[in-house]
Design a protein that fits this description.
Elements (H helix, E strand, L loop, with lengths): L7 H11 L9 H14 L7 H21 L3 H25 L5 H24 L4 H23 L13 H17 L6 H32 L1
Helix pairs in contact: 2-4, 3-4, 3-5, 4-5, 4-7, 5-6, 5-7, 6-8, 7-8
Length: 222
């Protein structure tokens, strides 16, 4: 049976409520990502959010295998990373826009997001990034959400400012790095692309965590 679906504006308002009142319109990339995912998810509103959650994790794991294949397989890994990020977001749309959101689902979705980001770091390592750099990339994917969770336990109602290192950035950067490496593998440039892309991710991650840390520090001082 087809479920009633919230309008895009209603969905964004619901997303904001579940994320401590954060306004997605304040960050163009996040707002655009949510709108794009809403457009994709609306026609499949009858599916369970758990299907998308499980699918996103499985596809992210498949991206690691493709990255280990090297060469042209890196392009496939990049596509799989993008698909996993899309599925990870579709589950949230299916839950919020059809009135099936729950605290249990919210926590499960967050946990799966962290697992997929660990898979992204593993895929970058499998593609040739130094282990320490891939580990730093993965750690910086986890750190903002850990800080937000701890700040929430300390009484901060919001999630802090949206930074340059939100989940859409992590997905897009990983996917483009792997995909670009696959496209340029034929001319021997894949190692350089992977190293540069992972390094840029770490730098952007440091900037994003700093932005968030300043925002949360102010909130905790109030």
């Amino acid at each position: 049976m087809q479920r009633a679906v919230l309008s895009r504006e209603e969905y964004l308002a619901a997303w904001s409520r579940w994320h401590g009142g954060t306004d997605p319109a304040a960050h163009r990339l996040v707002g655009g990502w949510l709108t794009a995912v809403y457009t994709v998810a609306r026609p499949v509103a009858g599916f369970s959010p758990l299907v998308a959650t499980a699918g996103g994790l499985l596809v992210a794991a498949a991206a690691v295998g493709a990255a280990l294949g090297g060469g042209a397989w890196l392009a496939a890994a990049g596509i799989l990373v993008g698909l996993s990020g899309l599925l990870d977001s579709v589950d949230g749309v299916l839950a919020l826009a059809t009135g099936r959101a729950s605290r249990r689902g919210f926590v499960l979705d967050s946990a799966v997001d962290r697992l997929t980001e660990a898979a992204y770091a593993a895929a970058l390592w499998g593609a040739g990034a130094p282990g320490w750099l891939a580990a730093a990339f993965g750690g910086l994917c986890w750190l903002p959400e850990y800080l937000r969770a701890r700040a929430g336990q300390a009484g901060v109602a919001g999630t802090g400012a949206l930074s340059v290192w939100e989940r859409p950035t992590r997905v897009i950067l990983t996917g483009c790095t792997l995909g670009g490496a696959g496209v340029l593998a034929g001319v021997g440039a894949a190692p350089v692309v992977v190293l540069a892309g992972t390094g840029v991710g770490v730098l952007v991650g440091v900037v994003g965590v700093t932005q968030l840390g300043v925002s949360l520090r102010r909130a905790l001082a109030d």
